Automatic annotation (TrEMBL):
It holds the Pfam family SpoU_methylase. The keyword Coiled coil does not apply. CDD domains: SpoU-like. InterPro entries: Alpha/beta_knot_MTases, rRNA_MeTrfase_TrmH, SpoU_MeTrfase, tRNA_m1G_MTases_N. The lineage of its organism: Bacteria, Pseudomonadati, Bacteroidota, Cytophagia, Cytophagales. Residues 28-170 form the tRNA/rRNA methyltransferase SpoU type domain. It comes from the Bacteria. It comes from Spirosoma utsteinense. Keywords: Methyltransferase, Transferase. This is tRNA G18 (Ribose-2'-O)-methylase SpoU.
Length: 179
């Protein structure tokens, strides 16, 4: 018998309340100066799908409620814990003092290819994703404990911020869980 697509009620989704109570994976996402509200909404959905502890929106990054974020988030603005912090450097320093490992996702000297990244157990990671054109600010790259780079093999050497987030989250989850 060929496989059949599952119906929505067969997906065993968590309710928003159950999601809020569920244990999260030990990472957060930091979006700095993201121009596209559709990208922001997409990252909300990814943060929900991969149970991020929190999503930080920094700089010019738009915040809910906004129809473009809502359109792509599909309700994830209600489940994912998020916070706006104006200055990404202040946030990164604060998280470092709390023991978070700051990992920028950028093409930089001395970067670690994502395929070679091995998260340390019992550590929490804050993944910083930057502007669609200029990327992560150089001062954040320099402050970071780790710079991760996604290997790319085509002519474009850049990925959409929402795609990048999905790759990084999936990589982290599959390397830190046994599911």
């Amino acid at each position: 018998m060929p496989p059949r697509k599952l119906a929505l009620d067969e997906l065993n989704r968590l309710s928003v309340d159950d999601f809020k109570d569920a244990e999260k994976f030990p990472y957060c996402l930091i979006l700095d100066d993201i121009r596209s509200l559709n990208n922001v909404g997409s990252v909300f959905r990814t943060a929900d799908a991969f149970r991020a502890e929190r999503l930080y929106l920094c700089g010019i990054t738009g915040t809910p409620p906004h129809r473009d974020i809502t359109k792509t988030a599909l309700g994830a603005t209600e489940s994912v814990q998020w916070e706006y912090v104006a200055d990404v450097m202040t946030l990164a320093r604060e998280l470092q003092t709390e023991g978070w490992i700051i990992a920028t996702v950028e093409q930089a000297e001395g970067s670690t290819l994502l395929s070679n990244f091995q998260p340390e157990s019992n550590k929490r990671y804050a993944f910083v994703l930057g502007n669609e054109v200029s990327g992560v600010r150089n001062e954040v790259v320099q402050l970071a404990d780790l710079v991760l780079e996604i290997p790319q093999f085509g002519t474009k050497h850049s990925l959409n911020i929402a795609v990048t987030t999905g790759i990084v989250c999936w990589d982290f989850i599959q390397k830190t869980t046994k599911t």
